[in-house]
Write a structure and sequence with these properties.
The protein is 74% helix and 0% strand. By secondary structure, the protein is an all-alpha fold. 56% of the residues are buried.
Length: 447
């Protein structure tokens, strides 16, 4: 069945279970840890810069180390997901990214070029380990949720990036202020290792879930959930998924190219906030590390609310029989318009206004962050994991370019003003991609 409205209202059927929401809760919390581990380096950044004697350009490259590996390993990660299934691959992913996060605390015992290279290498390994995470999230949502709930489900797991800052930025700021930057990596690494146990206990494919009811299975199947996605994995049955030749078909599809470029631009805002934003607050606005940790949580709260709201708005349009194209594109375009307000911060020194416009920009980014919902709607059924990995590859090229570009902008101008224009311009390009390049949103059929 295609991912279109089935005419069945959620309230019209009494479901014997709500297992899909339990799966989503686990996805949400592991994604919180995922993004908190990415952000450790930004919270610790000011102290690391001072202690290791690094320049803005040096830090730009260290911030980007995660992105290099994350991008390079996306397609192999998608291959692994389609070959071995989401649960097994994700468990290994959590273990390794947590272990490499833990080890980063030992870099303080090194000096000079050795410290720089070691920190770069460890961030690189964290990026490689996290590569399957978001394609797996999208894959699991496609397997568990009908089309008329998929926007909300994708928005919820995607909003975890904001919740990570809300929950952990103040905590990590306090740890750095009280105990030093090394301990941030220790705490986050151990937390991730603990979550491996939780993941293995509570995450299942729909057909294997121990408590799912027949009525819930019928409901999600009729609604377009890909419940058979992992059914034959591990049973010696050859799957179509790992065929990398399909990538050419995706890259030749105008709709998918629009999605990939748009996702790249949206992620530029994300990587500004999880890399340079705390440094901006300390260096450009004169805040202490402790205060910056708390202030950074304000835009994150707004981003979280916007992220949930974007999914709800999109699914609201679907339930009222608007097309999938209108339902997905409307929140994205409106959100990106709001995100452009980040540039206004260049024209005021009022701390309250700066926080307000940063919060408004991140709120808009949250509303517009529906790329993963669109991927769940459009990914070919044979390669759901690989398709998500290609989206993440293109989208996370900005995890490389954004930190480095901003580092050079700051180093050459001595100011963050150009950096904020750089980020705001990406929101404008995203609007153009979704409005003029993508066309109709529909599931891709492989030839």
């Amino acid at each position: 069945m295609e991912d279109v409205m089935t005419g069945i209202k959620p309230a019209a059927k009494k479901l014997g279970s709500r297992s899909r929401w339990g799966i989503l809760a686990v996805l949400f919390f592991i994604t919180v840890i995922n993004y908190a581990d990415r952000a450790t380096i930004s919270i610790a950044g000011p102290q690391i810069t001072k202690e290791l004697g690094l320049t803005a350009v040096d830090m730009g490259y260290i911030f980007s180390a995660f992105g290099w590996a994350y991008v390079i390993c996306q397609l192999p990660g998608g291959w692994l997901l389609d070959k071995f299934g989401s649960k097994k691959v994700y468990a290994f992913s959590i273990f390794f990214w947590s272990a490499f996060t833990l080890v980063q605390g030992a870099v303080g015992f090194l000096t000079g070029l050795t410290a720089f290279l070691t920190l770069f290498a460890l961030r690189f390994l964290v990026g490689a380990s996290e590569a399957p995470s978001f394609p797996a999230n999208s894959r699991i949502v496609a397997a568990w949720f009908p089309a008329n709930e998929r926007g909300t489900a994708s928005a919820i797991f995607n909003s975890a990036q904001y919740a990570a800052t809300v929950i952990f930025a103040p905590l990590m700021g306090w740890i750095v202020h009280t105990y030093g930057w090394h301990h941030v990596f220790t705490v986050m690494g151990l937390l991730g290792l603990l979550y491996v146990v939780i993941w293995n206990k509570f995450v299942w494919a729909p057909k294997k879930h121990p408590t799912i009811s027949a009525s819930e299975m019928e409901y999600i199947t009729e609604g377009g959930a890909l419940v058979h996605l992992d059914q034959n994995l591990g049973n010696g049955v050859k799957t179509e998924g790992p065929n990398l030749a399909y990538i050419k078909q995706l890259l030749a599809n105008r709709m998918m190219v629009g999605l990939y470029i748009g996702q790249y631009c949206i992620n530029a805002l994300t990587y500004f906030f999880i890399t340079w934003f705390p440094v901006y607050l300390v260096q450009a606005r004169g805040m202490s590390i402790l205060k910056a940790g708390f202030v950074a949580s304000v835009p994150a709260i707004c981003g979280f609310v916007g992220g949930i709201l974007g999914g709800i708005i999109s699914d609201w349009f679907l339930r009222r029989n608007f097309s999938l194209t209108v339902a997905r594109k409307t929140p994205i375009v409106l959100g990106m318009l709001l995100s452009m307000s980040i540039i206004i911060c260049n024209y005021t020194d009022n701390e309250t206004l700066i926080i307000f416009f940063m919060a408004l920009a991140f709120f808009g980014k949250g509303i517009g962050a529906l790329g993963w919902a669109v991927n769940s709607d459009t990914a070919p059924k044979q390669i759901a994991g690989l398709s998500g990995s290609l989206l993440n590859t293109c989208g996370n090229l900005s995890s490389i370019t954004t930190p480095i570009a901003i580092g050079y902008i700051i180093n050459s101008t001595g100011s963050f003003n150009g950096a904020l224009v750089y980020v705001g311009a990406h929101a404008a390009v995203a609007i153009c991609c979704f409005l003029f390049l993508m066309g109709e949103i529909k599931r891709v059929e492989l030839k």
